[in-house]
Amino acid sequence: MEVPKRPMINDALRLLRLYLGLSQNHLASALELSQSTISEIESGTKSVTMEVLERYSSKFDVRMSQLLFFAEELQDQPVKTKGKLIVAPRVLSLLELLAPKEIADAS
């Protein structure tokens, strides 16, 4: 049985948090969400809603289109739209290699 993979958007949001230098607690506070919600999103056990993406977008001045770039998956996509979808996981892999280390929560 194949293990389901975590959606790219979940990884992208985790990396965004790391690049911003925030702990899950600080991010949760900034977005007015619970820390457990942030944890579930980042681990892929909770789906990301448009409302949550809008919070990230407005709070951190990131365009929705930049976030949604990582929300699409390759499954069931026509060949002509797969180009950018093939690039997205590679971009994510590169960002993962360059990502700062996890922030320890000092609260």
UniProtKB/TrEMBL annotation:
Question: Is-annotated flag, keyword DNA-binding?
Answer: yes
**What UniProt keywords apply to this chain's record, in alphabetical order?**
DNA-binding
Residue span(s) of domain HTH cro/C1-type: 13-67
User: Is Membrane included in the keywords of this UniProt record?
Assistant: no
Top-rank taxon of the source lineage equals Bacteria
Q: Name one Pfam family in it.
A: HTH_3
The UniProt GO MF terms for this protein read:
DNA binding
| SMART domains listed in its UniProt record | HTH_XRE (SM00530)
- Protein name per UniProt: Helix-turn-helix domain-containing protein
What species was this sequence derived from? Devosia ureilytica
Lineage of this protein's species? Bacteria, Pseudomonadati, Pseudomonadota, Alphaproteobacteria, Hyphomicrobiales
